[in-house]
Amino acid sequence: APVGTSGAYRSRRNFQPTATIALAKPLTLEVGLRFERLEEQSPAVHAEAANAFITTLRYHQRLDDAASQQDLDASYSLRAATNLLATDFAYTSHFASLRYQFKHGKHTVIDEAMGGAIGGRAPLDDRFVLGNSRWLRGWNKYELDPLGGNRVVSNSVEYRYGPFKAFYDTGAIWDEGQAVVPRHALG
Fold first, then answer.
1. Is residue 149 packed enough to be buried (19+ CB in 10 Å), middle (13-18) or exposed (0-12)?
2. How far lies 97's CA from each of 19, 40, 76, 163, 181, in Å?
3. Measuring CA to CA, which residue among 94, 83, 87 is closest to residue 119?
4. Mean pLDDT confidence for 39-46
5. Do the Cβ atoms of 183 and 136 come closer than 8 Å?
6. 3-class secondary structure, 5
7. Is residue 168 within 8 Å of 184, Cβ to Cβ?
8. Any residues with CB less than 8 A from the CB of 93 and at least 6 apart, and which?
């Protein structure tokens, strides 16, 4: 596996207690801990702990009038795995996303953007992925980065009319120190 990445897992157990606090009408904060136990696929099976502090700040605002509806969603998530939690991984993961949706009759326009960065050695399931049904559609995640990347940026613009949909996606996934290769998808 590349530096900063763990291998594939035979099994994974996760316990994640969290609490959500309503800070103000459109703003919530989720805080908690994640305790994860990973058994690797290697011949000498051993378990690793991936324990982390987790927090997500979310904003949601809806504006309605007689003819249309607008939704704005934004979030920022931080995961920090530290030796204070007896973990085998030490990393920080930052992830931010922004989504705007406008509906008028049968017309819907959606613009969604996200970006993230990981510092340190993160477990495979915490790495970023593009080339799925939500981000950079039309690409195969195994062609882009089979083990996921520790850097990601993506944007998707979508138009819907009733059951019909058209989209344009762009994004890049890479590991720190690698060249950034932008990809595009139209469907």
1. buried
2. 21, 31, 7, 26, 20
3. 94
4. 64
5. yes
6. strand
7. yes
8. 77, 78, 79, 80, 116, 117, 118, 122, 126
User: Which residues pair with residue 54 across a beta bridge?
Assistant: 32, 79
Between CA 124 and CA 85 the distance in angstroms is: 19
- Residue tagged 């990393």 (tokens): 91
Residue matched to tokens 């920090």: 80
Q: Tokens standing for 86?
A: 């007896």
- pLDDT tens digits, 50-69: 788 999 999 999 988 888 99
Could you tell me the pTM of the whole model?
0.85
Q: Is the dihedral of CA 13, 50, 76, 102 positive or negative?
A: negative
121's CB contacts (< 8 A; 6+ apart) are: 4, 5, 6, 89, 90, 91
Distance between CA atoms of 72 and 101, rounded to whole angstroms? 7
Residues 6+ apart with CB under 8 A from 84: none
